[in-house]
Amino acid sequence: TAPWVADLSPRKGAKAYFVQDYGANEGQPLDKVVPTWDLPLHKITISQWLLGLIAEHSGDTDVTYVPNAVDTGRFYAAPRGRQPVPTVGFMYSTRPQKGVDIALDAIAQARRSIPQLHVVAYGASPPSPGLPLPQACDYALLAPDEMLKSIYGRCDAWIFSSRLEGFGLPILEAMACRTPVIATPAGAAFELLSDGGGIILDAADARKVADAITRLVQMPDDDWRAMSTIAYQTATQYSWADAASRFEAGLRDAIRKAALLAAS
User: Fold this and answer.
1) Whole-angstrom Cα distance, residue 13 to residue 201?
2) In CA terms, which of 87, 176, 192, 246 is 20 to 30 Å from 158?
3) Within 13 Å of residue 14, how many CA atoms lie on the same side as its CB?
């Protein structure tokens, strides 16, 4: 929609461009999107990764950064230790960008050393025969927030195995429920896990995810509780009120730029 907005008359008001991804999850190649970043629209985006991508391809560094947040009234859990039965979870999707094949491979590898490893998952579609769920996996189809909170809270680790993301909201949702996250280097994973609320990997690699699962679910309980606390503290730093204020500031920047453009 960015080219449509750019073509509108200035009488329609100041123009802003909310960049939450670049359409890769919908099959949109980067080279089709980059030209829209050169349009005279003030950009607002949600992750440091996207800030860098925009700067790299358009040279624009005057972009408003508005990280996502979760409602901690809906996503929360009481302090806890590790589960009596080691448990991991993930979000199921058949989209290749989501890397569910990586998560499934990693779980299979981790179960070779931890046969009792329990798995929970949720998703928006029934499991595909070409991408079957692990054996004895508790799967929730179209789970409401109240159920998601319970799913996250049952896990010793949440697996975020995406190959490509604009942000990766399940990372923040899991952390708000005091669940450490094992994440591939996609979206906002680096900025969300840099304080130690989980394990950030250097590649979307099943062997590395499996090793991280084994390490995390066998971690001494005191160490796990410390990581869980960091995860929760990190998640609660991101509030909807702060996001709304930042977004409003971005719209004011759009107004400022429109006024400068009109005066030039």
Assistant:
1) 44
2) 246
3) 16
Q: How far apart are CA 121 and CA 259, in angstroms?
A: 49
Helix, strand, or coil here: 198?
strand
- Label residues 214-249 b or e (16+ Cβ within 10 Å = b): bebbebeeeebbebbebbbebbeebeeeeeeeebee
CA distance 246 to 83: 38
Residue 35 carries which DSSP code? G
Sites in the chain below the pLDDT cut of 50: none
Cβ proximity of 172 and 238 under 8 Å: yes
The position carrying tokens 């900025």 is 191
Residue in the block written with tokens 């980067």: 30
Per-residue pLDDT of 89-128, as tens digits, reads 999 999 999 999 999 999 999 999 999 999 999 999 999 9
Residue 221 main-chain phi, psi, to 5 deg: -60, -40
